[in-house]
Amino acid sequence: MSAQGAVVSAVRPGSIADELGLAPGDTLLAINGEPAKDLIVYRYLSIEEKLEIEIVKADGETWLLDIEKDYGEDLGLEFTSPTCDGLRRCANKCLFCFVDQMPPGLRPGLYVKDDDYRYSFLHGNFITLTNLKPEDWEYICRWHLSPLYISVHTTNPALRCKLLNSKRGGNIMDQLQRLSAMGVKMHTQIVLCPGLNDGEELKRTVSELGSLYPAVQSIGIVPVGLTSYREGLFPLRRVTPPEAAAIIEQLEQWQHDYRRRLERGLVYGADEFYLLAGQPLPPLAYYDDFPQTENGIGLTRLFLEEFATALSKLPRKLSRPSRIVVATGTLIAPLLQHLVQSVTAKVRGLEAQVVAVPNILFGPEVTVAGLLGGRDLLAGLKETAAWARENNGVIIIPEVMLKSDAALFLDDLTPGKLAAELGLPVRAVPTTGEGLLQGLIWETPCW
């Protein structure tokens, strides 16, 4: 997108846009007289059967095109950005903001604080609602941006102002009620900070959010994430295993009450609580329609279900013996070790080890696989790599460790460099139960 319109990045071959002669570098200015402000407007307007679109070609020539097509038929355009005015940045100074705890020297995009309601609608990004202007509220209402994903953390006005370090944070319930009146559905999250928004404050927040059902479709509770880079920041601590167990007990009670009244659990706890407490994950029914998997809620249960289904595809014996190293974070490693042992017990010729890699990049309190850097893997895998090199060894990593659009770890090390340093092929597999088995058993491309 540009300030004047939507800049085309790609045109699907054989599409309407392709037949009309549109090309990358062209700019879509308007559809039926409506400025093409962002991807949302484009999607809503372009579904119509009759369109008049205004285009500025890359050479500066202006085209006005009349189009007749089937209702809902896509024009075949992709754009350089979802919005024409950039990304709305967060102006808050949340006490627990993960971006403020980042180590120096990483790529610039990792330090961006997003608080854009359009990205919330398009991609499920969580927003605080503190930077909305009157025209933004009008936009949300006009285009019916539903659902939105809202970072609530607490409904206590004074406490929310403190947590967000923003004077504009206190009217969250009024804002949620306003969205409800517009017919907007919401998925809400609470980042749990021990000693601040837990205990009675958490009970209040869950109760008040629950009162907004069905507008509030889910309440996700996740533990605060802390790195080693908190010098000068508000003193916070991690959730302890006993606290995680107590939260699980409270979650089960809330779920029981809401299911009885609403036929929906409504409140869901992050997988990390269960792994931290050493307790079994809830069954599939607990998660209803899995509304917050991107928030780390229910992903592990889905992983286990996919793994169990894929087990039936296992061969009895490998065509040639192999040794596999499964690299992961310290939080999920015990569970993966149990799963991998169940595979090696069934498949002759397969040896595998799960390595819990400590996080050096962010610090040892960061335990998830997706935040491991390439140099963390270099340091954590050297000893096991020597074992694996003896017999057709391969290192497998989950794709969540890599940049979504490039083969780069968070510290910009490449899987190819990792493979060269360790002397073993590196195989990135989908972060799913089937992906794990794919890495263990079936040949896939490696670095």
Give a structural overview.
32% of the residues lie in helices and 18% in strands. It contains 14 helices and 14 strands. Strands 1, 2, 3, 4, 5 and 6 form a 6-stranded antiparallel beta sheet that branches. A 4-stranded parallel beta sheet has the order 7-8-9-10. Helix 11 links the parallel strand 11 (317-328) and strand 12 (348-356). The radius of gyration is 24 Å and the shape is globular. The chain starts with 5 loop residues before the first strand and ends in a 6-residue tail after the last helix.
SSE layout and pairing:
Layout (H helix, E strand, L loop, with lengths): L5 E6 L4 H4 L7 E5 L2 E2 L3 H7 L4 E7 L5 E7 L8 E3 L37 H7 L10 H9 L5 E4 L5 H8 L7 H10 L4 E7 L6 H12 L5 E8 L17 H22 L4 E3 L1 H7 L21 H12 L6 E12 L4 H12 L3 E9 L17 H15 L5 E5 L16 H8 L3 E4 L3 H9 L6
Parallel strand pairs: 7-8, 8-9, 9-10, 11-12, 11-13, 13-14
Antiparallel strand pairs: 1-2, 1-6, 2-3, 2-4, 4-5
Helix pairs in contact: 8-9, 10-14, 12-13
